[in-house]
Structure formats: C-alpha cells, structure tokens
Specification:
The chain is of the alpha+beta class. 45% of the residues lie in helices and 18% in strands.
C-alpha cells in the first residue's frame, strides 16, 4: 500500500485482519479468553475484543482507558510494520469506547443545557483529543459552538452559544485531530 488519503474497504479489512492476528497473539500470551470482532466504520478499521467471561478482559481497559489506549497504539504500530502505512484503526475492549462515548455525550448535553440556561460559555474538565472530538461533534449537532483551549494534558473544551462565539472561535472549532480514538 502507498500513502493514501482514502483507503479502500479491502485495505481497511487487511488492517483489521493484521490487527486481529496481533491481538490474538497478545491474548494468548496473557492467557485471556476473548473473541475478536472486525469491521469497517467511518473509513477506519475497527477491531473489538469481546469478553467470553467478565473477569480477564476487563483488565485490558485500565484506569480511564489507559491500557486500551496503549493497546491501540501498539496495534497500530503492528499494522504499520506489515503495511508500511500509518494506521488509524480503532480498538475497543469489551464495549469500553461505546460506554465512554455515551458518557461524553451526556456531559456535552449537560454543558449545552447549562450554556443555554445561563447564556454564558461553559468550560469542561480537561480531556484527551478523542474525548474532545466527541464533545465537539455533539455541540455542533446541537447547533452550538465549541473550542479547545490550553496545552496537553490540560486541554479542555468551552461550549458557546452561537451568538457568543467569535469569528476566531469559529476558525478553531475543530482544532483537535481525534487521533486517539
């Protein structure tokens, strides 16, 4: 594969296969039982480790998802080693990302409600780029504006009413790459 902007479904399926093989090897090493499901969503390979039982696989999420994030990085590197291309695959462990997205959606809706009620911008707690991207998407879908501020690891999102957003804010509305997702 060469440098590509829009990988084909076949290329993404190849990435998912490589990732699944890599993850199966890791599961064997740690002697964890789990199924691996693969697919393509929104132009990205998606690989999920699904628990056969409730005990072992939960250990692969870690505190605040730090282990699943590290596994995703390692898996992307394994795919890159085989394909020669940078991978943007998404790894989920036992529904962790789905649950995380749902929680962030609720946080965004609460901030939107508070912003509308008070008529003032609302600052959220610091988040990683994956989390900020979800917040930005929900805010946009609800017809408001958002902007990220600060430096990692203390970067956070501010939610604005459209009337309160400045021209500069609009330019920076989606300044997070969301590459941790």
């Amino acid at each position: 594969m060469s440098e590509r902007d829009n990988p084909t479904v076949e290329q993404l399926n190849d990435e998912a296969d490589i990732a699944a093989d890599y993850l199966e090897g890791l599961l064997d090493i740690v002697d964890y039982e789990g199924d691996i499901e693969m697919g393509v969503r929104n132009g990205r390979a998606v690989v999920q480790i699904v628990a056969d039982d409730d005990t072992d696989i939960k250990n692969l999420t870690g505190k605040n998802g730090d282990i699943v994030e590290a596994l995703q990085r390692l898996t992307r590197l394994a795919v890159q080693e085989k394909t020669g291309e940078r991978s943007h695959l998404i790894l989920d462990v036992d529904g962790y990302l789905k649950n995380k997205r749902e929680g962030l959606h609720a946080i965004a809706l609460d901030a939107i409600e508070q912003c509308r009620e008070q008529g003032e911008p609302v600052d959220l707690q610091p988040m990683n780029s994956f989390e900020r991207k979800i917040i930005h998407d929900v805010v946009r879908d609800e017809g408001l504006k958002s902007r990220s501020h600060g430096e990692e690891p203390h970067r956070y999102v501010t939610v604005y009413l459209k009337a309160k957003a400045t021209a500069n804010d609009e330019d920076d509305e989606f300044d997070d790459d969301g590459d941790n997702d």
